[in-house]
Amino acid sequence: MTEEVKQEAAEAATAPGLNIGDLGFMLKMIDVVTERGGFRGSELVNVGTIRNKLEAFLAANAQPAEEDAESGDDDAK
After folding, report:
1. Residue 26 lies in a domain
2. Which of 1, 18, 23, 68 has its CA 20 to 30 A from that of 30?
3. What is the tens place of the pLDDT at every residue in 4-56?
4. For residue 55, what are the contacts with CB-CB under 8 A and spacing of at least 6?
5. E strands, 1-77, where?
6. How far apart are CA 43 and CA 50, in angstroms?
7. Residue 35 lies in a domain
8. Residue 38 falls within a domain, yes or no?
């Protein structure tokens, strides 16, 4: 049983992951591809929906980091 736990832990440690920076890059890629005409008109609703969800997620998760940086500046004064 302990060997299974060790194996699962090793797999979890090497599993690929995403971070906020990756998601921000994806948002920029969607914008660039859209500007270059990379999507068909019939695809734009779906692409726009995903883009808006991604943008909202990034905005919601970026606020705590910005607040921490601002509070750190106040402490230094």
Report:
1. yes
2. 68
3. 777 777 766 777 888 899 999 999 999 999 999 999 999 999 999 999 999 99
4. 27
5. none
6. 11
7. yes
8. yes
